[in-house]
Amino acid sequence: MPSASGTTVTKASLSIMLPTPNGPGSQIDDVTFQFNPKEYSLQKSANWKSKPAKGAKQAPMPEFQGADPRSITIEIFLDATDSDSRDITRDVEKLLGCCTPLDQTVGQNKPSPPFVIFSWGTQSSVAAYVKQVQIKYTLFRPDGTPIRATGSMQLQEIPATPPRQNPTSGGLTARRSHKVIAGDSLAAIAHAEYGTPTLWRAVAVANGIDDPFRLPLGMDLLVPPESEAAELG
Fold first, then answer.
1. Listing from the earlier edge strand, what are the strands of the sheet with 71-79?
2. Residues 69-102, buried b or exposed e (16+ Cβ, 10 A)?
3. What is the pLDDT of residues 98-120, one digit of tens each?
């Protein structure tokens, strides 16, 4: 969508992914934000432990215990005042559903909410789980249907899994291919191959894909080595 200055505005989006032991699996749904967040905040913390020594005049040197995952808080604004049919409650239910177990995971006796990938242009693309969603409805139609809402969503980053390796050499193979199946997304493929969704553009460039949201089923994608992907991405 062009802005007033003529530039194209990239919409922030949330891809809802099937959870797997190695991170996000196939895409099962998505939410494209009608209005981009005005702001979002990042938080990263480290754990340190200090053991007081009896009778000591100074505290001992603290010991580093490890780093906590990064958390991201995103502002949400949903509005349907310009449409008689748009229902923002559908997007709200998708967001709230990210905090409840998926039916397929319950059936496998491994209940888990979905993983998500938050993307917004080149600035942010992170695999995470949704820790909290808060929504406030602020405007309604005469029949009580909500048409405007504000809120926030807190994501907790999922640690990146190591890139796939050649079992004989211990290094990445020179070339890989990936056959597109239902629910696949470039971000999920990049996360599975490289351990991070941020390199999805490398897969798009390597395969001449102009529209990353339209992947033909059955297409064999060329997956470049990580060294090349870093340059292409």
1. 23-32, 13-20, 115-120, 124-140, 146-157, 71-79, 40-43
2. ebbbbbbbebbbeeeeeeebbebbebbebbeeeb
3. 999 999 899 888 899 999 988 88
pLDDT of residue 152: 95
CB atoms within 10 A of CB 10: 13
Give rounded-to-5 percent helix, strand, coil for the chain: 20, 35, 45
Q: Taking 60 as the threshold, does the pLDDT of residue 43 lie above it? A: yes
Burial of 116 (0-12, 13-18, 19+ CB in 10 A): buried
Q: Where in the chain is the domain with CATH 3.10.350.10?
A: 161-233
User: CATH number of the domain at 161-233, please?
Assistant: 3.10.350.10
User: Is residue 175 pLDDT above 80, yes or no?
Assistant: no
Q: What is the pLDDT of residue 4?
A: 52
Residues 160-175 have a mean pLDDT of: 46
> What is the band of 71 on the pLDDT scale with cuts at 50, 70, 90?
very high
Angle at 14 between CA 154 and CA 24, to 5 degrees: 90
- Which long-range CB contacts under 8 A does 121-126 form with residues at least 24 apart? 121/10, 124/40, 124/72, 125/187, 125/197, 125/198, 125/200, 126/70, 126/72, 126/155, 126/157, 126/197, 126/198
